[in-house]
Amino acid sequence: MARGEWGYQGLWRGKWCCSYKKTTLIICFINIVIALYVLRSIYASIYVFSRNDLKVVKYTPDQIRNMEESVRIRRDNEPMALVKLVNGLKQEFSRDESVFELPRAVKLRMIDEILRRLRSSDVKGNVSAQREAVESWRREKLEEAKQLSIGRQGINSTILQEEARMLVRVLESDWAALSEEIGLWIPTEIIHKEHGDKPKGVEDEDLDEDVLPGRPPPPECHAELHTDYDGVAVRWGLTHHRDSAADCCQSCIEQAKRAKPGQMKCNIWVYCPAETGCHSPDKYEHKYQECWLKYAEKPKLNFKDRYSEKYRNAHPAAPLVVPWVSGVVSL
Question: What is the DSSP code (8-state) at residue 186?
Fold first, then answer.
């Protein structure tokens, strides 16, 4: 009985094993079929895409002729000479930079030598002496570099022979650029000479004020230097500036022509030619190029030539000479 049961169980297990293997094979087969289908679809899409890309566009003979003609015209219009010139300059500049670029160690050594030369020369504050000391060093170093470039090396030489040619070039023709590169700057000396050619008894202020800037006023303006005429203001000069006394006079003449009946017509113009401004006893600050247009039935002087001593005592800020320029025009 036990044997019968065991045989039955073994038979059932064998059938189960056979069924499991078949199931595994079927699943693997289905997966292989699906994979092949996917690969076929991918290949077909790639093939169709490549076929579409390989389409050849056919041009007519006229179109080909037009394209060739456009290419020829474009090539003819290219500035070949200019392109060659620019390329040649680029190559030359790159060659110069590569050949004549001094090593950093050489530049530092040059700076040390220049500083030692300036200290030993004791030229503090003397610009001319500083320039002479640096120029003397440059001449000596240039001579040394020239001797090295032809194979004559000195005993106390501080540069190598392969650097000699570069030093000759920069010290002889590119010294200004090298000075700026190593930070060597010496201010330009300004020589001021005072000429004592002014007449005796004439003060500086008189000479300065005698020169009227700008174009000279025409005769009809009757310009008078160092003169300030009184009158009723037709146009305030605080907001009315002109480039010259002639322009101020012209403004007065034009105002008189444009004036309507019953309005005051300008017959006096007063101009400030001093860049530092012009003095007046009123409360305003009168600036350079102010142009006052005035009217007076009988023009009268406010000030002429010089301010009196009494006036200057009462107005300490007043200058010695009247700075204004005035004129009376006929209506």
Answer: -
